[in-house]
Amino acid sequence: MPDLRSLEVFFWVAQLRSFRAAAERLNTTQPAVSQRIAALESELGVRLLERAGRAVAPAGAKGVLPTAQGRRLLDYAERMLRLRTEMIEAVGGPGAVGGVLRLGVAETIVHTWLARFVERAHALYPAVTLDIDVDVTHALRASLVNHSLDLAFLMGPVPDPDVANLALCRYPLAFAASPRLVLPPEPVSRSALLTLPIITYPRSTAPTIQLSAALRTTDGPAPRLFGSASLATIVRMTLDGIGVSVIPPAVVAREIEEGSLRIVRAELTPPEISFTASWSIGPGDALARRLAELAVTVATDAGHR
Amino acid sequence: MPDLRSLEVFFWVAQLRSFRAAAERLNTTQPAVSQRIAALESELGVRLLERAGRAVAPAGAKGVLPTAQGRRLLDYAERMLRLRTEMIEAVGGPGAVGGVLRLGVAETIVHTWLARFVERAHALYPAVTLDIDVDVTHALRASLVNHSLDLAFLMGPVPDPDVANLALCRYPLAFAASPRLVLPPEPVSRSALLTLPIITYPRSTAPTIQLSAALRTTDGPAPRLFGSASLATIVRMTLDGIGVSVIPPAVVAREIEEGSLRIVRAELTPPEISFTASWSIGPGDALARRLAELAVTVATDAGHR
DNA sequence: AGAGGTTACGGGCAGCGTAAGGATC
DNA sequence: GATCCTTACGCTGCCCGTAACCTCT
């Protein structure tokens, strides 16, 4: 009789179209996956996966593909796995929910309310282990779509059809500088801004692209943008008086309080950035959805709506 | 993570309200059941079954009873088990359906079309083992309601709310006798019948009760009924000329063909008996239902509608 | 005292990981 | 030859069965 573990293995092989990838996803070895699939096929007396290259599959298809029977099984497997997670929470309560949830977080969130989120998540789901990866949004997005993350707090919705998004929080950006930095009179004009080094997110990211477009003129000089993937580094450079930074004030609330940074008023209003909690839809997504909802609460409580 | 085996064990404990009975039902030992339930309760961090006597339960309640959480789990368990059996047949086809089905059969059926049924069932579900018990209807009914049979071919529908019934076949009863037996002129009158030993089903069964009522008069003698739980014995006694039997002619088709028995016309028409395929409703009932349907087909093909 | 559930302990086997073997590009 | 799945094999750990124990009526 097929058990849930076999169905879970089968599900991930079909989902990821690879035995190896499924093995990694499930923290096991590739032969173990092979064996389970073989056992399933033998128990059901049916071939479930068409292996490898173009032996049978049409040219475009990469990796293993489910057969017609495999697709049927996939549907059942998904339903049963979903039912199991639903059951565990319905009967045992949040405390019974276990396992590892891989969470990707954009650095901006780390500097605002991530700690509070982790704390509340642990209080609610004490048996869940959070594996946290901090990275830039585009890397998080890539990890999300290839299922190496279960949930991510990143910039903007992820358009992928099997990724769900929940609006999390929006941060106005503002110009910030060290009080030691000599600046033109405020509000700083656009042309004056063009003379200053502007320290902000990396060039290829959405807010920087918008900022650059707003600053750039046909005739004047190009803005001097210093991009950094590390928000901490941006803050460090700003504290050191290297230039004016464009960041969410919320990230440097403490520095402003201390007086080591100050908000610089300017003619130009920098763009806003908005974050979502995003997870890939699937039978195991119940926990991710719950934590996404929790994140919305935490972000709201923190005042970053 | 709870697996399907644990849910199956839990289901049967809850259903049968006993660890021991569940152990028997699942062909395992009682400690194994204890352990699985304990593991389940520990995994979910919740008490699922209220053990034993009147410690907590009100006086009337016998055996173990599910707690509120247990009832919730029971619902999920039922859905998941049902989904599994549905999945196995949908993906693997009938050949993938395995296990043991305990079938109870009334003797009348044995003497007509049981062999054909077994043959066709085996052809359709080669991996299924049929455990067949032949017994009288009322014993079969009792076994059915306490779940020691999965399916039974017996007389009349079983009124229990969680037993499903499918009409199988109806047999007219007739008077049969050895040609050597000296009989009154035909059609035999009711009063003449009262003088003869009538060999038939046991006293407490439906057809005999009806027959007895039809024969009995307020003033005349009581009918001389020879009841036997064994149909083969009834036939044997009839062949030996002990009396007239009331049985379905279909059962003695061969003897009539050979001339060792003959149908006796009488003033009185004996009752009809009707059979149903009956099974207890539950998550594992898919196979029973299929076999019940097959039995209807076989009975119809055999001409006993 | 007997029925029924729990605890304790030993053994068998499923399933995992390591390592070597094939197939396909 | 590189990549990916399969086969072979030894081992661990889970789960089952036996048996002794406990607790209620």
Descriptive notes:
The structure is a homodimer of 305-residue chains. With 305 residues, chain A is of the alpha/beta class. Helices cover 42% and strands 20% of the residues of chain A. A five-stranded mixed beta sheet of chain A has the order 4-3-5-12-6, with helices on both faces. Chain A is elongated. The relative contact order of chain A is 0.15. At the A-B interface, α4 of A face α4 of B. Chain A binds a DNA duplex (25 and 25 nucleotides) through residues 18-20, 28-36, 38-39, 51-55, 63-64.
| Total of DSSP H or I helical runs spanning 4+ residues of chain A | 12
H and E string of chain A: HHHEEHEHHEHEEEHEHEHEHEEH
- What is the strand arrangement across the widest sheet of chain A? 4-3-5-12-6
Summarize the main sheet of chain A: 5 strands, mixed
DSSP summary, beta strand count of chain A: 12
> What proportion of the residues of chain A form beta strands (DSSP E)?
15-25%
**Uncertain ranges of chain A:** 54-59
Chains forming the largest contact: A-B, 28 and 28 residues
Radius of gyration of chain A, in Å, reads 24 Å
Describe what is shown at a glance.
Two copies of one chain form a homodimer. Chain A is α/β, with parallel strands linked by helices and 305 residues long.
Which terms would index this structure?
homodimer, 305 residues, alpha/beta, five-stranded mixed β-sheet, 12 helices, 12 strands, elongated, DNA-binding
